[in-house]
Amino acid sequence: MKGQSRAHCLYVTAVLVRERLVAVAAMSLLAAGCGVLNDSVDPVKERWESRTGFSSCGKVSLDQGEEMQKQAVREIVCLRRALKSGESAELKVTYPTVEGDLIREYYRLTPQGRLEVYTNSTDDRYSDQKWSFAECYTPEWLAEISCD
Predict the structure, then answer these.
(1) Cα–chain-centroid distance for residue 74?
(2) Which of 36, 67, 90, 113 could pair with 54 in a Cys bridge, judged by C-beta atoms 3.0 to 4.6 Å apart?
(3) What span, in angstroms and rounded, lies between the C-alpha atoms of 63 and 55?
(4) Could you tell me the CA-to-CA distances from 37 to 31, 34, 127 in Å, in that order?
(5) Strands (E), the chain
(6) What is the Cβ-side half-sphere exposure of residue 68, based on CA atoms within 13 angstroms?
């Protein structure tokens, strides 16, 4: 009986060790998966989504080669009015890359006269496919809406 008992003990020990190894491996995979999920969080996108909304100056969709100052006259006037009056405003502009992928830019004028530009390049196959952010005080030329 002692032989069977010892063999049984070794068998049970082997099973328990194997179960622990499987559990450790599963936890490692789960932790690695969580790390991948956390790495995919885009802080600029989160910042955009959690922003305080401003009054809208509308949406502009540009086709290949179209210029904003020609296609978005009313929307630019809205932004200029907000800038002069010290009010806040937002404008969404969508335009294609040379390859035809869509870029979405969001322009925000704060009551302090700061221009914030959020760019969503997630659909541009030839970019980093991330969101980006830029800001400036006193935009140079609002028709181009740039922070030179």
Answers:
(1) 28
(2) 90
(3) 25
(4) 10, 5, 21
(5) 56-61, 89-96, 102-109, 114-120, 131-137
(6) 20
pLDDT for position 28? 42
Q: Do 148 and 140 contact (CB within 8 A), yes or no?
A: yes
Give the β-pairing of 114-120 and 131-137: antiparallel
pLDDT in tens, 86-142: 899 999 999 999 999 999 999 999 888 888 999 999 999 999 999 999 988 766 555
CA–CA separation, 22 and 105 (whole Å): 48
Tokens 């800038």 -> residue: 83
Supply 55's token pair: 């009054």
One-letter amino acid at 12 equals V
d(CA 130, CA 31): 24
